[in-house]
Design a protein that fits this description.
The complex is a heterodimer of chains A (288) and B (362).
Chain A lengths: L1 H11 L1 H28 L4 H8 L13 H8 L5 H32 L5 H11 L4 H15 L6 H4 L6 H13 L2 H9 L4 H9 L4 H16 L3 H6 L8 H9 L6 H36 L1
Helix pairs in contact in A: 2-15, 4-15, 5-9, 5-12, 6-9, 9-12, 10-11, 12-15, 14-15
Chain B lengths: L3 E10 L2 E11 L4 E5 L6 H9 L6 E6 L2 E2 L5 H4 L1 E4 L11 H11 L4 H14 L15 H13 L5 E5 L7 H18 L2 E6 L2 H7 L2 E6 L2 E6 L1 H6 L4 H6 L6 E11 L2 E6 L4 E7 L9 E6 L4 E2 L6 E12 L3 E8 L2 E9 L9 E6 L5 E3 L9
Parallel strand pairs in B: 3-8, 3-9, 6-7, 7-8
Antiparallel strand pairs in B: 1-2, 1-4, 4-5, 9-10, 11-12, 11-14, 12-13, 14-20, 15-19, 16-17, 16-19, 17-18
Helix pairs in contact in B: 3-4, 3-5, 4-5
The chains are: A mainly alpha (288), B alpha+beta (362).
The complex binds adenosine-5'-triphosphate and magnesium ion (MG).
Adenosine-5'-triphosphate binds next to strand 2 and helix 1 of chain B.
């Protein structure tokens, strides 16, 4: 019974209470806008919404209606489903190809010995802190020159190689025992085969981490898609939301419904993978 | 099955030389053990034979073919790692089958080889388990099984028993010996445990600092160590050493003088460099020194420590000019720390090493 009583003790200690209070405050600040978004999207009456938005009423649900959602989905000028498909194509391609390319780069860095390896690794780590925004203009000139504007690949190709993903893979691979590679080499496996049949199957946690990080980053990417897409054909959700928001007169209920539907897939994905994600973040912290 | 030959094999990492030119002929079907202290280059040498480490210089020949530039598979060698290095995400069956799959062997052959290895190693019941669900000893057997299924010409082992507990180590040692008898392959085995070396080897290669100190059967190394290093490395408890001087060279036989001037006649001969008055070292095995043995020579000792080992006891004693002299005696007789007496030994059983540590000829 000792562990139980010590647990109760800790739950009621002032320090614990304070911690919980702080976490509660932080959670409300983060969840507040989400609640407003959800509540507002379910209110059918635009006038009512505008009145409510100024105060506490924004948090209080009125009669529930899916009218806003129906209208968003029916809107031909701002095709939500088109935006969604575009985002999915771009994000899934970046994540899928990114896992392969970045893990291969990291595997070479972690296992092969070649001249300039340390320098290359240092450069890649340094690249982590370079924001995409600072590269946007030269990159734009490049893709324009290539005639890639207004397409899927202009949103995908520049972002497959991802320094932070390479770094995470590198760290993970460096900790996998080298004996495994050597045993497989003794078994006659090629470098490619070792990577594919031994290393990658053992890397599920880091693959999940990288997929979530890179996926989230490009789910919400805004500047670049705005620069390289013209019509709605290849435009992703993030740009779509802003465009939808910019319409006059502003239909708050529909804006919120749109935003809700745009966030939902991310929240679902995150909740599904969060256990892995936390595991691997904690794991790398403890081992590192 | 294949002979393996090493000629002037060298290894350096950049400027740092770690293996300094090793010559060794390993016969077909021989069980060779590389033994030596930590860092002496045992693993490096084994890994060069395996094909995991590039050979800086010299020729490696396996089964009559120069193997320096061949891949491990082309060489026909299989290796058991100290860490076992089982693939954690594969079942025991898949672990053992992986090598054959890489060789594109057909399914029936794979199934047959895996079944054969499982039978030899008593792994039938575990074929569908993952390595994480096995004990250390079972993992070790899977690692051996992974080597067996490929029917290699040469088996390589790098300290395969060092992660097992004492009882299991003895068991597995016997299993490896039995495996060698049954399969008859050439086996090269690395260990720093001289008991493993003595019990398993047809011939032992004693390495020190990247050089071969001596190659020979366990009995040769034990009875006629070529130098002081081999003498102290082989045998447990280790050989005891006493400082002495060359007192006389009568008729080719040496007479030595102990630190207290006491003369010891030996049947050793002088080497060319030996001079009267040269300092030498006498080596005595624990079983050759006894409180009241039949030996004709006497050595005054004082007991410093006593170790009880059930069937026998080890007495650690000091003598003039020396400490830590070891005697192995049967149980029974009571001794106490501080006892003084004349220990006896047979002068023909002792070893004599010159100032450079090289054994003097008999
Ligand atoms: N990659 C490397 N770079 C530089 N030196 C190395 C490298 N690998 C091994 N060495 C050196 O080579 C020497 C022999 O190492 P090796 O691993 O063969 O020793 P060992 O006899 O197997 O020792 P142990 O019993 O501890 O396993 C050591 O001095 C080691 O420091
Ligand atoms: Mg070693």
């Amino acid at each position: 019974m000792a562990p139980v009583s010590s647990r109760t003790l800790r739950l009621t200690s002032p320090a614990t209470l304070l911690t919980y209070a702080a976490m509660l405050a932080a959670a409300s600040i983060m969840l507040g806008p989400l609640v407003v978004m959800l509540v507002t999207s379910l209110k059918p009456d635009t006038l009512q919404i505008v009145q409510d938005l100024g105060g506490v009423a924004a948090f209080i649900p009125g009669p529930v209606s899916l009218e806003n959602y129906k209208r968003v989905l029916a809107d031909q000028q701002m095709p939500f489903l088109r935006f969604l498909v575009n985002t999915l194509v771009v994000v899934v391609s970046i994540v899928g190809l990114g896992i392969i390319v970045n893990s291969m780069a990291a595997y070479c860095l972690a296992r092969r010995r070649f001249r300039g390896r340390d320098l290359l690794l240092a450069v890649i780590i340094a690249l982590i802190i370079v924001p995409v925004e600072s590269l946007a203009v030269p990159l734009l000139m490049m893709v324009n020159h290539l005639g890639w504007m207004d397409s899927y690949h202009v949103q995908i190709v520049p972002f497959i190689a991802h320094p932070f993903s390479i770094f995470l893979f590198y760290q993970y691979f460096a900790k996998l025992p080298k004996d495994l590679d050597e045993a497989a080499a003794m078994d006659g496996a090629s470098v490619w085969r070792i990577y594919w049949s031994i290393i990658m199957p053992l890397s599920a946690p880091v693959i999940a981490t990288v997929a979530i990080l890179q996926g989230l980053e490009f789910w919400s990417a805004y500047l670049w898609p705005l620069m390289v897409t013209r019509g709605v054909e290849f435009r992703p959700l993030s740009v779509g939301v802003a465009q939808f928001f910019g319409q006059e007169p502003r239909q708050w209920g529909e804006v919120m419904a749109f935003a809700n539907m745009a966030s939902l897939p991310v929240i679902i994905a995150y909740l599904t993978f969060q256990r892995w994600f936390i595991q691997s973040v904690v794991g790398s912290a403890v081992k590192g | 099955m294949a002979p393996v030959s090493l000629r002037q094999i060298r290894k350096s990492y950049h400027e740092l030389s770690v293996i300094h030119g090793i010559d060794l002929e390993i016969a077909d079907g021989e069980f060779i053990v590389f033994v030596g202290p930590s860092g002496c280059g045992k693993s490096t040498l084994l890994r060069m034979i395996a094909g995991l480490e590039e050979i800086t210089g010299g020729d490696l020949t396996i089964d009559g073919v120069r193997a320096n530039d061949q891949s491990p598979v082309e060489r026909g060698v299989a290796m058991v790692f100290q860490s076992y290095a089982l693939y954690p995400h594969m079942t025991v069956r898949d672990n053992m089958a992986f090598g054959l799959k890489m060789a594109k062997a057909d399914r029936t052959l794979i199934a047959q080889r895996v079944a054969e290895a499982a039978r030899i190693l008593h792994l039938e019941r575990y074929l569908d388990r993952r390595p994480s669900a096995l004990s250390g000893g079972q993992r070790q057997r899977v690692a051996i099984g992974r080597a067996i299924v490929r029917h290699p010409k040469v088996f390589l082992f790098d300290e395969p028993l060092s992660n097992l507990d004492a009882a299991l180590r003895v068991n597995t040692r016997l299993e490896i010996a039995r495996l060698h008898r049954d399969l008859g392959n050439t086996m090269i085995y690395v260990t720093h445990d001289q008991v493993e070396a003595m019990t398993l080897a047809d011939r032992i290669v004693v390495l020190n600092g990247g050089r071969v100190e001596q190659v020979g059967t366990p009995a040769e190394l034990y009875e006629r160590p070529a130098n002081r290093f081999v003498a102290s490395f082989i045998g447990s408890p280790a050989m005891s050493f006493l400082p002495a001087q060359i007192a006389a060279l009568d008729g080719g036989r040496l007479t030595l003088a102990l630190a207290d001037g006491r003369p010891i006649p030996t049947h050793h001969r002088a080497s060319e460099a030996t001079r009267l008055g040269d300092p030498v070292t006498i080596g005595l095995r624990p079983e050759h020194l006894a409180p009241d043995g039949p030996g004709s020579a006497a050595l005054p000792v004082e007991i410093q420590d006593i170790e009880y080992h059930g069937d026998r006891r080890f007495l650690y004693a000091s003598a003039p000019g020396a400490n830590g002299l070891t005697m192995a005696i049967p149980g029974g007789r009571p001794f106490q720390v501080g006892d003084r007496f004349d220990a006896r030994f047979d002068p023909t059983a002792l070893h004599v090493f010159d100032g450079a540590g090289v054994a003097l000829p008999v």
